[in-house]
Specification:
This protein is of the alpha/beta class and 550 residues long. 35% of the residues lie in helices and 19% in strands. The protein folds into three domains: 294 residues, Rossmann fold (3-Layer(aba) Sandwich), CATH 3.40.50.300; 122 residues, 2-Layer Sandwich (Domain 2, N(10)-formyltetrahydrofolate synthetase), CATH 3.30.1510.10; 82 residues, Formyltetrahydrofolate synthetase, domain 3 (Roll). Strand 21 and strand 22 form a beta hairpin.
Length: 550
Amino acid sequence: MKPIVDLAKEKFGIPKEDLDPYGHYKAKLSLSYIDSLKDKPDGKLILVTAMSPTPAGEGKTTTTIGLADAINSIGKTAISCTREPSLGPVFGSKGGAAGGGMAQVVPMEDINLHFTGDFHAISASHNLLAAMIDNHIQQGNRLNFDPRLITWKRVVDMNDRALRKITIGLGGTANGIVREDGFDIVVASEVMAILCLATSISDLKSRLGRIVVGQTNAPVKERKHIYASDLKAEGAMTALLKDALKPNVVQSMENNVCLIHGGPFANIAHGCNTYMATKAALKLAEYTVTEAGFGADLGAEKFVDIKCQLTGLKPQAVCLVATVKALKHHGGSNADGYKVENLENLRRGLSNLDKHIHNIREHYKLPVVVSLNHFYHDTDAEVKLVMDHLNSKSVPAVVAKHWLLGSSGAQDLANKIITAAEAAVPSPLTTVYPPNIDLLDKIKAIATKIYGAAEVTVPDNIKNRLAKWSKEFPGFPVCIAKNQNSFSTDASKRGAPTGHTLEVRDAQLRNGAGFVVAICGDIMTMPGLPKVPAAEAIDIDSSGKIVGLF
């Protein structure tokens, strides 16, 4: 590793005074410096997404980092923009989010644990608002909160299923009013979504003030929204987020600059890194390589319909990550068959990849290049089958070996991505649905076009809520929270199922972020730990070296 202040100066001429170091190898990029770049032209934006995820992992973050390294290695300039890891999956089953092998960002241990404290700041800001709500009610309830209609939960950055539903205020009148409450994981917080979409300190503060936290105690037709600004909370919340809004600067193992900032999950939130980091990278480098969470049905859809629609960004090309073992999984193989040649299951699993390619080309109207992330146990026959299939469909594809070889293993991918990005004709952003239709129709558009569903079922009370919000907040996009392992809400349905039903069981307003969340199937906004948590393997030796992170 090189000292990050020196590396940023060497690569992009960033003055030392515009970097706030967190030790030798991490730093925050000042907002004033980002603002000073506003008149520079933007580089090309490359979106990395993937086929539907499997327990084996596909290497999306690894590909994002490896691709950026490869672009730099062929004489261009590139910056990778990825999301910060959440402690939930780090100690759960997914692991960290710093890439792997020879395509990772460092210092990996710091990045995967507390990093620069952004998630702690988000948690504190979110929970300050929760505390102010209960204190307001305790001190007389001037705003006439209905305690049954408070929608603002607490958050913690940990998988802790026991906190999903709790009762607070027990122990007498001095401890507040008794009511039901609960915890979400930090990445599901609206504060996280707001931080990732904010364009400045003033925009951040304004968005925080617009958060809807509950409703007044009145007959249904007379109820009014209560906002964070009614509690005068947005100033203090913004103060807690002052440094968290600054993008984090680190480096890859090949000493290329990387920005890691923000971190919502695409199965329960919008799944993209921050606008601030993306915009800074676009001004600094010829190519910005960014990732969106989970499969292209979730991450890429939300990148286009939420992040791009709300900020004006547009990618010039998409890199779609696939693996032989993921394809075999979607064709019917289980973990004990991932490393065993099975051309029949592999062929069946191609339907999942084909559906994602179709969505990117037909509904997002973006050029796509497939990166077949290579593993040592992939056989020549399996690789040939996949590449022949993609060639028959005129889909550019590369077998990438960046995990093993670093940038040299992804140079072919870099060249194909650059070719696709440079050939892209400037055009307006194409979204899955127009902004002026009702929220329920937006949900139906995503379900039928992107997921292949036949119908959408919604309880009457949620239908009424969506209809009301469609009038109150016209133009809001929809963020669908659902299981990430299938196009359907049933994780057991592999490949590209059709004719299924999308079951919407709840809807939540994210007025500060500027969208509505549709909770579908059995998805939880507070995950639980697996039977054998990754935390069991994490340790620290007597010299202070952390082991067991992945």
